[in-house]
Amino acid sequence: MRIKNLELRVLHYLAAILLLLITLNGCKTRKLITPTPQIDIEPQFWVRVLLLDNVEACTLEIESSFSITDDPNLQTQLPTARFDQIDAPMSIRLINGEITIGGRPFMNDEIIIFPDEPYIFKLNGNGYRGKLKLIINPDGGSFDAINIVPPDAYLAGVVGAEMPSYWEPEALKAQAIAARTYCFYIKKRFGGNRKWDMKKTAAHQVYRGISAEFTQIWNIVNQTKGQVLVCKQSDGTEDIFPTYYSSVCGGHTENSKNVFGDSFEPLIGVPCPYCKSVAKPKFFFWPMIQFDNAYVVTRLLRRYPNLKQLGEITNISPVAQSNYAEFSRLTKVKLFGSNGKSDFLRAEDFRLAIDPTGRKLRSTICQIAKRGDKWEFSSGRGWGHGVGMCQCGAQGMARQGKNTQQILSYYYPSSKILTIDYFKK
Fold this sequence. Notes:
Distance between the termini: 66 Å
Mean pLDDT: 90
Radius of gyration: 25 Å
Number of domains: 3
C-alpha cells in the first residue's frame, strides 16, 4: 500500500509539473510576423478598412518612427512631419475643424500616418499593420479612421478572427480563400464610390488586426496566396463573386437571392449535415427571446424611415419561407399599418433591423408570434444569414477528411479556384 501511495503521489507531482509547463507555454507572447509583408505592393491592391467612424478623438501608439503627410493630392506622400518613437499613447483630436496629433494641427481634411518598419501601429490599444488614414467628415465635427493594409496582412487579421486558429487546416484554407474573394469583390463593387473598402465588423467580415494573427494563420494565408473563387457571370465570362459565409447554417444553407437579392450560380442552398456536430448546442439551437413591441417598431423605423407611411405598425406576418426537412427559414415578412397600408421586408433585413448585433436574434430560422405587447421569437436554429459556406460545416467536413477544394465546391457549387498573380513579395 505504501508503494502504491508513493506511486500515486509521484504521478500527481508529475501531472502538476506538466500542467505548469503547459500553462507557462500558453502565456508566452506570440511572435509577430515582421516586417509586414507586401508593403511595396501597388497602391490599388491595398485594402482600406474602416476602423472608426464619426469619432472626435482616439489614441495612437507607434513603437517605431513614423511619418505624417497631409499632401492634398495624397500621391507623392512626401512627409509633412516626422516623429520619433513615442513611449506613451498620443492623442488624436478634432479641434476647431482640424485634426491634431499630439497637439500638432494639420490643415488638410485627409492625412496619412505611415509607420517605419515593421509598419505597425495601435489605434485605441488595438494593433494593425500598414498605414492609418484620417478623414474629416463633411459636417466638420467628426472624422473616420481607415487602416490601409496590404491584402495578406488584412487576410491574416480576418481568418484568425472568423475561425479558431486551432481548427482543421483544410477548413482554415477554405475560410482564407472565401474571405479573400469576398474582400476583393466588395472592394471592386463598392470601393470606388467611397473612402473605404471594408468595415471591420460582421457587416462585412470580422477584422481584428494583429490580435487575430497566429503562426498557423499566417501559414494558411501563405499556402493559399492569391487564391480566389470565380464563377461564370451572366455575360459568359468568369469572375469573382460575393463568397458569403456564416457561422452555423442550422442544417441547410440558403439561396442568396432570398437573403441579399443577388443571383450567382454558386450561391444556392445545399444540405449541411456537418455543422451540428461542430457547433455548440446553444449556438445550433438558440433560446426563445422577446422584444417589446415599441422597441421593435422603433428599430424598424430607424432603419427604414419609409415605413412611417404605414402609420402605426400593427402586425408583422411571415409571407415567404424556405422549407426543409426539419425546419423552415423565413425569407420575407409583411408589415401591416394602422392606415390600411402594408409593406414587405426581406427577413434578414428585418432581423438585423431589430438586432443589429445578431447575437440575440441569431437567424431567421424561427417562429414569430405576438404575445401581448411583446414579439416572441422561438424555435431558433443556426447563427447568421445562412448563405454560402457554413463555417462550422466546413470544420465538420475537414474533420471527415475533406480537402479545401471539396469544401468550397460543396458550399459554392459550380465555382472554381483561380490564382491571381499580381502580388509582390
